[in-house]
Amino acid sequence: MSDRYLAFANSAAGRRLLRTLGLPTPVRLERWLPGRSRTLDGALLLGGDGALLESLPGFAHKLSGELYADRPERFGLPCWRRTDDARLKALVFDASGLSRFEQLGELRTFFQPELKHLAPCPRLLVLGRAPESLDDPQAASVQRALEGFTRSLGKEVRRGGCVQLLYVGEGAEPRLEGALRFFLSPKSAYVSGQVLRLAPCAAQVKDWTRPLAGKTALVTGASRGIGAAIAETLARDGAEVVLLDVPAAADALAALAARFGGSALTLDICSEDAPARLVEALPEGIDILVHNAGITRDKTLAKMNEAQWEAVIEVNLQAPHLLTQALLQAGKLREQGRVVLIASISGIAGNPGQSNYATSKAGLIGLAQAWAPTLAGRGISINAVAPGFIETRMTAAMPLALREAGRRMNALGQGGLPQDVAETVAWLAQPGSGAVSGQVLRVCGQSLLGA
Ligand SMILES: NC(=O)c1ccc[n+]([C@@H]2O[C@H](COP(=O)([O-])OP(=O)(O)OC[C@H]3O[C@@H](n4cnc5c(N)ncnc54)[C@H](O)[C@@H]3O)[C@@H](O)[C@H]2O)c1
Fold it and tell me: Cβ contacts of residue 425 below 8 Å, gap of 6+?
């Protein structure tokens, strides 16, 4: 559904009027277009004092054709000096070396001079060490403080900018390339204010132009909306995709499968024989499992009947659990497998009228957290992706006032697109993304709802 406010804010007259009235002027976000190969179109500045920075120059030249360091004679890179016509597109600050409160000011010193002069849709990234990995209380506190800084900067940065914090574990440095290829590129257009932990992971992408080559993926609820975008994006990245949806969606499913060169599987994931049928339909097994199928039956709890409650729990939570369990028991989820559960920010923040839905989506986050340690032994990762307001049929059906509130109540002032969720899933599905497991990644434009 078209966002008329966004279109108006991006017209010359609209921008003038909205600025005069002091109203927000969301920008059109840059997105990854077919045929693109470079992560960044613009200058990348590397700075900070930790040990993590040492691992960046080895691959950073593959991300941007214009690399700078924050001080002279560093990594053989030119030192950044802003001029009137030169603007930074991305900044990466290694804060892992900060351990005293008085050093926190280095964040301000590094970012502040550039904030009013950034290129459109800039990418800002802070690197640190997970507080729980540090023994010294002050050092742990300083690293935890990075969260407050990052989330605030995400809410301040203008022109479609996104800011993230990555806590990088000892030995996880080689996984930074995959993470930066996602977080510094337009693939993460609608991801901001996020905090993720990277752990060591043996697998790595071999060909960055087709990072999922040789992998087989199953996507549930793939006949339309977010599921169709996920299937398309996984296929773009080289995966062979099995698209699953209810029998009533057979025609749309077959058409999409033909378009992406994948195969279609009609199955109601709640039917009693669904686990057995799924196992039978995947004789060779799969590497990537995306539980996207989901429904809403919105009512306040006072008015919700048993059928509305049960249907949502069954489709959104119970079926993903039973199907994953069946695939694991039958050995159909291969070593180094990647499982992604599509949750929702409702499952994090709660939402009036969605107690059933929020319960199911919070339960999915619980599944990711509970399963991650067990699956780690086989190199399998499992994560939840929590979309905020995404422009789909589901949100087009919302009452106007709620829809407008959902679109604007985030740091980017607009709804996301199915592609934004799909790019995030595709990144988590990569071999090297086994570095992330048992975590939740929100695709919500840094929604003001929830943490
Ligand atoms: N649209 C949003 O803003 C938004 C926000 C947060 C989370 N999500 C989640 O993202 C996922 C996709 O959302 P969407 O907006 O594309 O929804 P959608 O309604 O357009 O698509 C959901 C798909 O799931 C399929 N499905 C439903 N029940 C099924 C069953 N029993 N067996 C097999 N397939 C079944 C449907 O046929 C449909 O194709 C859902 O899990 C949803 O909860 C969406």
Answer: 230, 233, 234, 290, 340, 342, 385
Active site members: 357
Q: Is 419 in the pocket of ligand 1 (CB under 6 A)?
A: no
Q: Is the CB of 225 under 6 A from ligand 1?
A: yes
Contacts of 77 (CB under 8 A, 6+ apart): 46, 57, 67, 68, 69
Instruction: Look up the CATH number of the domain holding residue 417.
Output: 3.40.50.720
Q: Please give the angle made by the CA atoms of 450, 93 and 409, to the nearest 5 degrees.
A: 25
The answer to whether the CB of 223 is under 6 A from ligand 1 is: yes
Is 25's C-beta closer than 6 angstroms to any atom of ligand 1?
no
pLDDT of residue 275: 98
Domain assignment of residue 244, given as a range: 216-443
In the numeric block, which tokens belong to residue 91? 């900044």
pTM of the model: 0.96
**Atom of ligand 1 lying closest to residue 222 CA:** 39
The ligand 1 atom nearest the CA atom of 416: 3
**Using the 8-state DSSP alphabet, how is residue 172 labeled?**
-
269 Cα–ligand 1 center, Å: 12
- Report yes or no on 144 lying in a domain: yes
pLDDT of residue 386: 98
What is the arithmetic mean of pLDDT over 382-394?
A: 94
* Residue-wise pLDDT tens digits, 60-90: 999 999 999 999 989 999 999 988 788 999 9
- In this model, does residue 355 exceed pLDDT 60? yes
Domain boundary among 145, 167, 198: 198
Overall number of domains in the chain:
2
User: Distance, CA 292 to ligand 1 centroid (Å)?
Assistant: 6
pLDDT of residue 395: 85
